[in-house]
């Protein structure tokens, strides 16, 4: 049985205190202990990007961080991005462009897209593609995702 | 406007319109309902110990330490499940001679591929189950691994299954016309190549996931399923776990990609269901990524020697090939692992006028993970062989590859007809497609640029593929051979008291947009706003019976059933309305949620009508007994398959120093019959093309000689990512199929089927001035450099 440790953190604006196994990944903690199933697990070795979420203002891989490392941190998941309205424009653009099919990569893809948009990224398609190069999507072929992000940057979205 | 409005032009007709998916908004909020998102009371978790060897005898298996490990609820070995699970055999009677031995969900005595389940641990958490699995002691006596299918066919090769006289699972030949004579004709030019298609796999981002719950009081199994064919799985769990079929419920909500991967019978999933039944509590199993690579079915793995003879005028005189394909140690249940080879024989050369055609396929057992149907089954192989040879021959006789196609493609006015392999074809448009394609891509200008850049030492190539795609299959695909796979699908449309529609269908959604297409059809045909339609799919308890979504059949078959059901409900509603309004049904219509006169004047709302029927039946004539619900089923009857066609082109640049191929542009012209939703179909085609590019350039399940998969992680197995992919330009030709009112054919596999041939032809076009060519996929930098003689 692995060791347990207490953690306190802020998740989507709510204070959370929990006792977690020290070997538990942050994304598993969010999904299993907090019921925040919007974050997905794809590869568990930091390659596919499905578990991308925000910790202390930076987009990170939820499968490469332990829950205990998030002690004291501020965490925002896809649910939080939606509830706060922060992802309104990018979500509207994703729906409009059909930038998702099965939707499994989408929470991570949205997080990476938002990171790009909020950092002042340009609508240059190659730059958008380069930024998304750590997020795997098997369904769309990526083009609609590039277009959705480009639409948001160009202000062509009604959120 | 003259004449009555049709379902395609009346108000609320969403057919042919770009309609965003309601599902998309939900999924983007993180409100998906994937199997692993579910947690049930008393749920426990399964982990599997898998064979580290490709071929070995199990001489000892001691799970005593594991059984007492913290959190462990149970440990099951293969032998433990033998009394509880009837073994399965992946054969079909219409594939005459196909053989495969009975297979158990967990290996009994002998393992035959690296990754085969050896024991299952069920514990209170996945981590505890994995901890315990490590404590299981297994002694193996390693046996020689047969990995090379050609070596496995040698007369003196060790046999993988003692009960069979060789490692040959199935063989089929086709011999049409006089092939030998055609190759001997005066003036023909013959090109001959050996093609190799590596193994690749689906890499669904959501791994296979199973959650089974069993209620002993009612002897009832509910299986939360990430897959495509709920009713097929209902049959399989019922038969192999000994349950009445109606007591098995399969629920598929959101599915995180499938592409044919999640439509087969996997031992770990059967064992999960068996464990739930034996333990009488919910058991969840989620494959981790390593397990996905060594246990999700692989696809392709073909070695093909092929030749084509062409006349001086560029006419194909004959086509001949020999295909050897390795399928792993068993034929996958229940669809079998012979279908891909069968498709290769059926489809190769199908776009062209070919009178002399001979082919043989041999399907071979080997000690690798099992091979089975994955998106575009057989298509990329069939198209690459024929179109690869065609462009090779065109170069040999100095003819432009587009002109060569113009001379050989079946005439757009020549249907109905059959292909050389005997496939019945109708409503195809190869010539229109290639013309539109060359216009779309600006072919002549591209050729000019290519020539100029070659002078500058830049090697770009343009390659084409003219293709057919198998869609909307009839019972002749599986059902005829005894498979528990429905070819018909059902749809139910119900008018509720609020005036909205509840619809249900037996086709399923894995992201294609099936649910949206169904809503578009129901709303448009019946006459309500699409926001008033609720869709139910993926539940054997709540939908009509049917096959599910595979072989590009969801829109074409499921959509037609929905159309018919909506028409039937409309007829019922108009009969009721006529009685209430003292009119007649042929003078009424339904538009925007209202019963109207034919000129559109509103007479009563659907809510009023439904509430009258449901609440105030006393206001209706006594002999009127309205249903307000209709179910219809549909299957294709006149054809084994409804073929589609397309034309695709790739523009690539080959770096002759590094061997890296970059796809600069890609164009696809597709004729999927009536386009129901351009937004969705274009995305289907683009995603398919990218999967095809993956198979052509990046993806391969690499094995060592002793059968170890060498790159079973996403860090090592390369998939297409955003930065490497080009923009893909899509255009349509619409030749509706005459087999249905809707006129829709499938489109989901076209890109994956056609892109590899186009990319291979483009690479060879780029390499041609250097005297090099490549016929092996994926076309990795190393292989390109070998083809160039650099390494």
What does this structure look like?
The complex is a heterodimer of chains A (159) and B (791). By secondary structure, chain A is α+β, with helices and mostly antiparallel strands. Chain A has two domains: 4-76, Ubiquitin-like (UB roll), CATH 3.10.20; 87-153, Orthogonal Bundle (DNA polymerase, domain 1), CATH 1.10.150. Chain A has six helices and five strands; from the N terminus they run ββαβββααααα. Chain A has helices at 26-33, 78-83, 88-97, 106-118, 125-131, 143-153; strands at residues 4-11, 14-21, 52-55, 58-61, 74-76. In chain A, a hairpin with a 2-residue loop joins strand 3 (52-55) and strand 4. Chain A is elongated, with a radius of gyration of 16 Å. Chain A starts with a strand and ends in a 6-residue tail after the last helix. Chain B folds into three domains: 22-32 and 488-634, Aldehyde oxidase/xanthine dehydrogenase, molybdopterin binding domain (Aldehyde Oxidoreductase, domain 4), CATH 3.30.365; 35-143 and 207-255 and 261-295, Aldehyde oxidase/xanthine dehydrogenase, a/b hammerhead (Aldehyde Oxidoreductase, domain 3); 379-473 and 639-787, Aldehyde oxidase/xanthine dehydrogenase, molybdopterin binding domain (Aldehyde Oxidoreductase, domain 4, 2-Layer Sandwich), CATH 3.30.365.10. In chain B, the strands form seven sheets. Chain B has a seven-stranded mixed sheet. Chain B has a six-stranded mixed sheet with strand order 7-15-14-13-8-29. A four-stranded mixed sheet of chain B has the order 18-26-27-28, with helices on both faces. The radius of gyration of chain B is 28 Å and the shape is globular. Chain B has 791 residues and is α+β, with helices and mostly antiparallel strands. Chain B contains 20 helices and 29 strands. At the A-B interface, helix 2, helix 3, helix 4, helix 5 and helix 6 of A face helix 1 and helix 18 of B.
């Amino acid at each position: 049985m692995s060791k347990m440790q207490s953690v306190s953190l802020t998740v989507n604006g709510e204070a959370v205190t929990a006792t977690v196994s020290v070997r538990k990944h942050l994304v598993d903690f969010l999904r299993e202990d907090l019921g925040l199933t919007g974050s997905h697990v794809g590869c568990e070795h930091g390659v596919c990007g499905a578990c991308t979420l925000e910790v202390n203002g930076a987009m990170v891989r939820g499968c490469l961080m332990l829950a205990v490392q998030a002690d004291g941190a501020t965490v925002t998941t896809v649910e939080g991005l939606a509830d706060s309205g922060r992802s309104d424009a990018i979500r509207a653009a994703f729906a409009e462009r059909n930038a998702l099919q099965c939707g499994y990569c989408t929470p991570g893809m949205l997080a990476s897209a938002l990171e790009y948009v909020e950092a002042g990224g340009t609508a240059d398609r190659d730059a958008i593609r380069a930024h998304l190069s750590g997020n795997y999507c098997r369904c769309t072929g990526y083009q609609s995702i590039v277009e959705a992000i480009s639409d948001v940057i160009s202000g062509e979205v009604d959120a | 406007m003259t004449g009555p409005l049709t379902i395609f032009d009346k108000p609320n007709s969403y057919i042919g319109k770009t309609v965003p998916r309601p599902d998309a908004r939900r999924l983007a909020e993180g409100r998906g309902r994937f199997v692993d998102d579910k947690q049930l009371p008393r749920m426990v978790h399964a982990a599997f110990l898998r064979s580290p060897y490709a071929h070995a005898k199990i001489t000892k298996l001691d799970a005593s330490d594991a059984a007492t490990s913290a959190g462990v609820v149970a440990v099951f070995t293969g032998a433990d499940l033998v009394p509880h699970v009837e073994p399965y055999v992946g054969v079909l009677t219409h594939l005459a001679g196909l053989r495969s031995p009975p297979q158990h969900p967990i290996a009994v005595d002998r393992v035959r591929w690296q990754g085969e389940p050896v024991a299952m641990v069920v514990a209170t958490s996945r981590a505890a189950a994995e901890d315990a699995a490590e404590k299981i002691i297994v002694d193996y006596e390693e046996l020689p691994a047969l990995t090379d299918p050609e070596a496995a066919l040698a007369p003196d090769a060790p046999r993988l299954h003692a009960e069979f006289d060789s490692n040959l699972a199935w063989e089929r030949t086709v011999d049409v016309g006089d092939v030998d004579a055609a190759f001997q004709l005066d003036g023909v030019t013959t090109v001959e190549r050996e093609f190799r298609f590596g193994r690749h796999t689906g890499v669904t981002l959501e791994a296979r996931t199973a959650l089974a719950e069993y209620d002993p009081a009612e002897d009832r199994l509910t299986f939360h399923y990430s897959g495509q064919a709920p009713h097929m799985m209902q049959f399989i769990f019922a038969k192999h776990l000994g349950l009445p079929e109606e007591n098995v419920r399969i629920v598929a909500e959101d599915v995180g990609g499938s592409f044919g991967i999640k439509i087969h019978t996997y031992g770990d999933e059967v064992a999960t269901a068996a464990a739930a039944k034996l333990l009488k509590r919910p058991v969840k199993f989620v494959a981790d990524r390593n397990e996905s690579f060594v246990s999700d079915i692989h696809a392709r793995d073909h070695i093909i020697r092929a030749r084509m003879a062409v006349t001086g005028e560029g006419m194909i005189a004959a086509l001949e090939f020999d295909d050897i394909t390795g399928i792993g140690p068993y034929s996958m249940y229940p669809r079998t692992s012979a279908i891909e080879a069968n498709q290769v024989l059926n489809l190769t050369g199908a776009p062209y006028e070919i009178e002399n055609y001979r082919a043989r396929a041999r399907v071979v057992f080997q000690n690798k993970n099992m091979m089975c149907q994955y998106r575009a089954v057989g298509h990329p192989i069939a198209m690459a062989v024929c179109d690869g040879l065609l462009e090779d021959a065109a170069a040999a006789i100095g003819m432009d590859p587009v002109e060569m196609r113009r001379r050989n493609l079946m005439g757009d006015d020549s249907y109905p007809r059959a292909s050389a392999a005997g496939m019945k074809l109708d409503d195809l448009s190869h010539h229109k497609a290639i013309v539109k394609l060359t216009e779309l891509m600006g072919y002549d200008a591209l050729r000019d640029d290519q020539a100029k850049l070659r002078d500058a030492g830049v090697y770009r190539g343009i390659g084409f593929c003219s293709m057919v795609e198998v869609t909307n299959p009839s019972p002749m695909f599986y059902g005829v051979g005894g498979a528990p796979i429905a070819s018909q699908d059902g749809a139910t449309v119900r008018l509720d008291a609020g005036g909205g529609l509840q619809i249900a269908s037996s086709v399923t959604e894995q992201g294609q947009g099936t649910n949206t297409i169904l809503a578009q059809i129901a709303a448009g045909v019946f006459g309500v706003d699409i926001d008033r339609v609720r869709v139910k799919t993926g539940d054997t308890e709540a939908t009509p019976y049917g096959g599910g979504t595979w072989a590009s059949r969801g829109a074409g078959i499921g959509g037609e059933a929905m159309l018919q059901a909506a028409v039937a409900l409309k007829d019922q509603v108009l009969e009721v309305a006529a009685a209430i309004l003292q009119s007649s049904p042929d003078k009424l219509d339904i538009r925007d949620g209202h019963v109207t006169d034919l000129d559109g004047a509103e007479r009563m709302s659907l809510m009023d009508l439904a509430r009258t029927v449901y609440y105030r039946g006393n206001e209706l004539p006594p002999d009127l007994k309205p249903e307000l619900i209709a179910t219809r089923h549909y299957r294709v009857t006149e054809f084994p398959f409804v073929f589609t066609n397309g034309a695709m082109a790739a523009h690539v640049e080959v770096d002759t120093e590094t061997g890296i191929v970059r796809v600069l542009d890609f164009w696809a012209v597709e004729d999927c019959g009536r386009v129901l939703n351009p937004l969705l179909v274009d995305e289907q085609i683009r995603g398919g093309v990218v999967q095809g590019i993956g198979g052509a350039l990046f993806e391969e399940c690499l094995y060592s000689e002793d059968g170890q998969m060498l790159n079973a992680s996403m860090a090592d197995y390369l998939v297409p990512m955003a930065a490497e992919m080009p923009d893909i330009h899509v255009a349509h030709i619409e030749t509706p199929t005459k087999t249905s009112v809707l006129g829709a054919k499938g489109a989901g596999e076209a890109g994956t089927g056609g892109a590899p041939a186009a990319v291979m032809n483009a690479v060879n076009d780029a390499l041609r001035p250097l005297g090099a060519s490549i016929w092996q996929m994926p076309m990795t930098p190393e292989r390109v450099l070998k083809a160039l003689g650099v390494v």
